Amino acid sequence: MIPKTMRRARVSARGQELLVEEAPVPTPGPGEILIRVESAGVNHDLRASRSVAGKLVLKPWS
Question: Which of 4, 7, 10, 11 suits 17 as a labelling partner, its CA being 20 to 30 A distant?
Fold first, then answer.
C-alpha cells in the first residue's frame, strides 16, 4: 500500500538550511515509476551554498 505522505529533504532558497519535512507522495506520470527509499545520505557539498560575494558559506547542523 502506498502511503499518502513521505519525508523529504530540500533547500527552499539559496543560502537556506536543509529542511526535512512531510510532503505528499507524488503520483508517477506516464513512463515513470514510484520507488520506496529506505534510507538516504546527504553529501557535505549539499550543506554549502554560495553567497552573493561568491564565498563558500557552510550551514552547520542544528
Answer: 4
